[in-house]
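Input sequence (863 aa), recorded before submission:
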Amino acid sequence: MPGENLTREEARERARLLAVDAYEVALDLRSAVGAGQEHRTFRSVTTVRFRCAEPGAATFADLLAPAVTAVTLNGRALDPAAVFDGSRIALADLAAENVLVVDAQCAYSRTGEGLHRFEDPEDGEVYLYTQYEPADARRVFAGFEQPDLKAPFALSVTAPAGWTVLGNGAQAGEPEPVAPSAATWRFAETLPISTYITAVVAGPYHVVRDHYSRTLPDGTVLEIPLGALCRKGLARHFDADDIFTVTKQGLDFFHDNFDYPYPFGKYDQAFVPEYNLGAMENPGLVTFREEFVFRGKVTQTSYEGRANVILHEMAHMWFGDLVTMEWWDDLWLKESFADFMGTFSMVEATRFTNGWITFANRRKAWAYRADQLPSTHPVTADIHDLEEAKLNFDGITYAKGASVLKQLVAYAGRDAFLEGARRYFKRHAFGNTRLTDLLEVLEETSGRDMGAWARSWLQTAGVNSLTPLATYDAADRITELAILQEASPEHPELRPHRVAVGLYRRDAGGALVRYARTEADVAGPRTVVAGLAGAERPELILVNDEDLTYCKVRFDEGSLATLRAHLGDLTDPLARALCWSALWNLTRDGLMPSRDFLSLVERFAGAESEVGVLQMLQAWARTALVHYAAPAWREEGGRVLAAGALRELRLAEPGSGHQLAWARFFAQLASSPSDLQLLRGLLDGTAKIDGLEVDQELRWAFLAASAAQGAADEAAIGAELARDNTASGERHRVRCLASRPSAEVKEEAWRTVVASDKLSNALAEATIAGFDQAGQRELLAPYAERYFAVIEDIWRERSIEYAMAVVRGLFPALQDDRGTLDAADAWLAAHEGSPAALRRLVLEARDDLARALRAQECDGAAD
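Predicted structure, token format:
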């Protein structure tokens, strides 16, 4: 990726010089279909009108393209060979007002960056969509690729007649025929937006239409045309009605609270294939991964997750699109807010009223992990260049930032927070901001000093631990309850926390319930909580009850003993989720043996009422078994966990989401002959479990488990593809083939991912997932050394998205011994000059491995 980076200093200098007035982008996408060269290109003609503050100065435009046909600056033809180096177009002797025209041949993508081309194996149809964040618009048109050089965009697209073609703006008139089989679509000019949120979707998509209207306070009626799209092959699974329901509920919520009408006209939502992200907030044309179109039965958690993403992206229409961060340092100004507002709006406006439980259990787990990596960073990061920006779409920017905002709402007050947002939108509409701009309005509305709060919560890294310490009198009443706050030596900041502390004990029926509660402001290493003095001795003290702050919760010895014996008796689902999360953090930190955590899951997970919490517990349990359990105990632990999963599968309510969750978990653990025989029986119909519908997606889950254990061969996998000859089926097939326990299979999988660039991003990820099987450590051992030998070449030769997938996915984490840790350290020591983003990925994987070894040592000590 040489020459493709852009530094913050370069962007600031260019923004100092330039102001962009307008873009006109014309794309000819007819080459997407029909016979052609293996690496297809399309024509892109860009006209940029911009001003320069210092006439005579020089700058550059961004473009990643195989070839440039012509460059014209202010009517003067420039030699493409002289001014274009493959990533930049040099622009010299600028006038006060300039017109740049670039005619280029740009490349279709197979890696989800730029303009992605997908050919559906089911029917041969071609589907196109764009994905640009943080800086891949330059793969499709020439421009100034940085968020603070906003401009209106006018788009035209020539494509095969009969396609659906969409842009950010509404379609202007009917498509104009340009040939018997092609037409040109023109779109209304947008309001000023950043390059990275422009978008194009084109192909024979299945489209469903709806409409939203709202009477505004001034009496005018806001009309928003709605659209939902997916591939034709997914149309029979497409529940557009539910998508529109959540969309309208979200629009109502944001209009009720933001007092700034949705400014971008229409609102289309396209579910597209081989998408690298969850979704992207392109105004007027939001794109989502098509896995949100559910091909089989899923749990309520999946519907909740989709609703959350829909609302997250909708929040971006204000936080990110209307008002945009100046540079990627303040990425949190859009992502943290969207992550918080996604759950906030979902809980208040949709049927998913338990969203904060999911947030506490799942999103915060992501944040806690990221905040303990050596690459952790403040929520407001120090982003030097685009490669660093790419990696900062992480658990800090999203989930920790959202957690901090949740606390800010408690600190400043809900009304002050929302009024601050309203002023922020009106003051900075269609502009760019920094942290200080947001703090300014929040200080105005709350009357609080936001500077101190920001320094502690936004400008320092690391997670604090809060532990209760109680003393009692002779009558078993609390004489003093203190909260001890700790921080890591690397990030020693002790932050101010607003927490609720709950006291729990069992009632006459055996339920573990809260009988006392108080809120307290925690500051420094030790804080005395005044509100609970004199309360009767509890069986459980829960710090951060109701999840008001961002911290790791610890327990005193008595509380931990209570949870070991009675966790299933804790009746409040949020309190239970918080306890599970705290127990998982103890396990990750090597303070609780992995087998103890697995025992708690085996004993109590079956009674978990929240299916989302259950699925998170199952994921944690598998991580504990695969990575944190002592190797000598791992096989026994797997048998116990598999037996427990099968027991709960048979006990679960027939047809319930819990039953489906246990079925999938059992398949992940199945390894014994009897377990594999049951999976075969469920596949061929000779075995049944009351209420369990083995649909196509569940069939693939069972087959994948069988293939990884050597119980399903290539013929069986091929036969399953014949049942499901779709793009989704092909991804499952590729994963199953790579998962088989054979040295030849592993070598072929490695070769297709590492030595070849023929695979698309989705098929490469499926191959990596199949290659990396927990039960095949010996087969994978030879690839540890090979991994460290190739990753620098992969980073240099492949796109950053593909390279990230390889570097993360093929790290030899299953070779969990000191030798692998030493190999990672040796690579880092020998490659100090490697790109910082590559080193960060290796350092993070190395840290995960070191954590696993510490956890294994803790677990081994339990023997």
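Checked by second reader. The chain has a mean pLDDT of 96.
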